[in-house]
Amino acid sequence: MKILIVNAIESRGGAAKAAQRLYQSLLTKGIDAQFLTGYKTSSDERVVSAYSCFNRYMSSFISFADKLPLFLYPKRNKLIFSPAVIPTRVSHLINKLKPDIVHFNWVTRGFIKIEDFLEIKSPIVWTLHDSWAFTGGCHLPLSCIKYRDCCGACPELGSLNPKDLSSWIFERKVRIYNKLRLAVVTPSLWLANCAKTSSLFKDTMVEIIPNGLDTGVYKPLEKDKAREIMNLPKNKILVLLGAMWLDKDYNKGLHLLKPILQIMKIRKIDSIEFVIIGTKRVKSCFVKGIPIHFLGTIRNESDMAALYSAADITLLLSLQENLPYTVMESLSCATPVVAFNIGGISDMIEHKSNGYLAKPYELEDIVDGIAWVLEDKGRYRKLSQDARKKCENDFSLELLSNRYLNLYKNVLSK
């Protein structure tokens, strides 16, 4: 059985992590697996690049070109939207590699044109890492449920026209999906329910297989040792906040941090320091009396595990998420998480068992959650223990890669 894992980006972002971890797990099991991406950044000979070293910058150009239709909508919001209109050579490369199964993950930002799906000769397994596959172009529909019928007059585009860009993209997907040999997977129950209620996937079986991680890498370290590794103060309460492109991706909620710190200041919860990764120093975050340590971008997984262990709490402020690794990795390192009760977060955080689920977008409740997690040392130890057990029991990479192997066999048997 030859499996081709496909993701637009090789190593950065949650979808890339999930795809890479599955790919490596399949290789460990002796499966003939390859990885196709926009352009490779590793030396792995089994990773295939859609762009050569000479024209690797074509991926950036194509990504920009794919967004050109959005300039017709000057009132659009700040969230990601992908038209998928630019032809690429991805389908040609896939057919040249002759896989038994093509396993798509995150394939937007100009990586492949929707119509090019029809050129792929192998059956497709598609793991959805956001909502794009069943919408008219948006990745995060938030409160919009137009995808249940058909898109148009798109709130993310700031459009009132029922025949706008989102309607056209949606109609293209209707024409294409009906002709595909397609199995759909979502990592979270929430995203599965969204997909099943969409008109595009209402007649498609949607299987739930969570993302996995190596609990041998993401494991608890003694807190003082972890802080020494990361050069952080040992005698402070530390709250960790971080995501890739934290300051550029509005969905990650960095704009909510300052008002949260102001609430903490008013309530005299000022014995806490914050640690932020995923961005350089952002002056607009600061509130006098609450220190913030900016650590920039951390790519090494051992350092990330040490950072989670160094923190007392991990804070997630995203407006909508599927099954974010920030939560999973933190729990695996026995660090409780405080987050809004949105998307697939509740698949990982059990309220007041291994973390705290705040009411969506209520900042006072986020502060309540931080205080609740920290106020009782005995309860904190129990939260930490349950956090680790949750990942060992539910998100082991070994367990989840076996489930994908069973799915591949079922797809090939049909």
Q: Layout of SSEs?
A:
Layout: E1 2-6, H1 14-28, E2 32-37, E3 47-49, H2 58-66, H3 90-97, E4 101-104, E5 124-127, H4 165-177, E6 182-186, H5 189-197, E7 206-208, H6 223-230, E8 237-242, H7 257-266, E9 272-277, E10 292-296, H8 301-310, E11 313-316, H9 325-332, E12 337-340, E13 355-358, H10 363-374, H11 377-394, H12 397-413
Parallel strand pairs: 1-2, 1-4, 2-3, 4-5, 5-6, 6-7, 8-9, 8-11, 9-10, 11-12, 12-13
Helix pairs in contact: 1-12, 6-8, 7-10, 9-11
Would you kindly provide a written description of the structure presented here, covering whatever features stand out?
The protein is α/β, with parallel strands linked by helices. It folds into two domains: 2-212 and 396-413, Glycogen Phosphorylase B (Rossmann fold); 223-394, Rossmann fold. The chain has twelve helices and 13 strands.
